[in-house]
Design goal:
Layout lengths: L2 H30 L4 H23 L5 H25 L4 H4 L2 H13 L2 H6 L3
Helix pairs in contact: 1-2, 1-5, 2-3, 3-5
């Protein structure tokens, strides 16, 4: 496995850990406020991202092209959602645009678009 692919997988595992941590923090609040659909929707978003990340990390060693493209698609959507939320909330600053929610997906996108990554995902 090339270093770029290994690094992209490691960053995805870090994202998965952050997602699971977010779910663990939000679950008591969602249970307490079960009638509030916004909290439940946010919890479901974290859960969906965690499931997709875990599935992609689990399928990583298959070296299939669709795993690479699904990972790229997920990271592009994650990056776009974060930037759009930041802009709509009016919290645009250097710290919000260059935080972990921006840099982790951007790093994965750059790493998976390298030629070694394209050669590694050949099946």
């Amino acid at each position: 496995m090339p270093a770029t692919v290994w690094a992209a997988r490691f960053i995805m595992i870090v994202q998965l850990a952050f997602s699971l941590f977010g779910i663990a923090l939000m679950t008591p609040g969602a249970v307490a406020l079960f009638s509030n659909p916004l909290i439940l929707g946010l919890l479901l978003q974290f859960l969906l991202v965690a499931v997709l990340l875990g599935w992609l990390v689990f399928r990583w060693s298959s070296r299939r092209k669709w795993v690479r493209w699904c990972a790229l698609g997920l990271e592009v959507v994650a990056l776009a959602v974060h930037v759009i939320r930041t802009v709509l909330d009016g919290e645009v600053s250097w710290t919000t645009l260059f935080g972990l929610a921006t840099l982790l997906p951007l790093g994965i996108i750059v790493l998976l678009l390298t030629p070694p990554a394209a050669r590694w995902f050949v099946r």
